[in-house]
Amino acid sequence: MLSSKLTDTEHSRSRPLVLYDPMAGTAPLLSLAERCGYTVYFNDLNSLHRYVNAAKTLPSYLTFKKIGPAKLLSLVCGMTSGLDRCPRSATEEWIEGPVLEKLTLAWKKSEEQNDSIAALIKAILLLAIRNFSSFVKTKNPTWLKPGGLRPKVSAEQAFRSAINQLDVFYQHVYAKHSTIKGGRIVLTDYDASQSAPGCRVDVVITSPPFCNRVDWDRIYAPEHFFLNAAGVWHTKTEFLGTTAVRGYPDFDLEFKFVTERSDYLGRFLKEVKKRQIRSERRSDYYVKYFTRYFAGLFRAFDMTASVLSEDNAGIYFVVQDNTHRGLLIQINQALAESLSGQGFRVRPLEPSWDRHHLGLRNISKRYRHVNPKQRESIWHAAR
Length: 383
Fold this sequence. Notes:
Blueprint: H1 2-11, E1 18-21, H2 30-36, E2 39-43, H3 47-54, H4 58-67, H5 69-79, H6 97-110, H7 115-128, E3 135-137, E4 144-146, H8 155-175, E5 184-188, E6 203-206, H9 216-219, H10 221-229, H11 242-245, H12 251-261, H13 263-278, H14 285-306, E7 314-320, E8 322-324, E9 327-329, H15 331-340, E10 345-356, E11 373-382
Parallel strand pairs: 1-2, 1-6, 2-5, 6-7
Antiparallel strand pairs: 3-4, 7-11, 8-9, 10-11
Helix pairs in contact: 3-7, 4-7, 5-8, 6-7, 7-8, 12-13, 12-14, 13-14, 14-15
């Protein structure tokens, strides 16, 4: 659907489109942009996405095709020689010291290569890092704890698996297409509410993160631990999650900000507070959590609206319904009211669809009857 919308927009202009995704995640539009020759700015808070996405670009694919999987595997194994000789020992860290040292050394060695090869090596290291990590899973599938023994997986097996992931991706998005124009891809990992591309854009397409108790610092903790050791985890902005809500100094101001922008959020947050009282949870944790989420979301959309060109195609956003103790969280409704107040006409695009909730069924330990299927839809906002 979005591809056809972009094609229609492109035909009305004499130059390639300029797109912006302020909450890009795994950048699903990246390969489309490369095939169509668009200029796209992809931004995400998570540095992991930035480095893996860099390996999904056309130059990285062409380099992968030229080098070949076998030679690339040999190159990465050579950079991490001696990794398998590190004894498996119990640790309280995400990654054992000797293993971490060899992996960070490989990261630094990768920078001696050209940009495309370096991007491939860094992505392979990040995609393989779980096989070198020591962690335990908890009852909440989104929450990991450090410690224990790393898996019994050889370095060659781990890196081969990561290379295969890239190969499958390339075969699917590039190898089957006879014509690829090549686009200009710019990847950043900054707070979307504080940063913007240095030019006007024709279209904004984005998908806000889940609005529930998913803590990205925990989901990607081993990878972030590694990136920090490699000296490239510079973003100080905390992700949405439990730790980010504690000591929330701007709650009163931001509560007023979001409820003035959306009548729906005023009713929703009031109901969240009621349910906390009923369950004898006297803290305002959940009210603070959702307030912080929507305040950040509204500011990100305000910023993206400010960089739209005069003759723009508007903002497309893909949202998925979430639940909190059986209470539906309508991100689409909150965004529609906020954008409408800024002079946008907001409408849903058909069709919407069911999407499995990725196993994140138990978002509250006290409530176990969440429908595993959620509705997902695409919306359009234009002035």
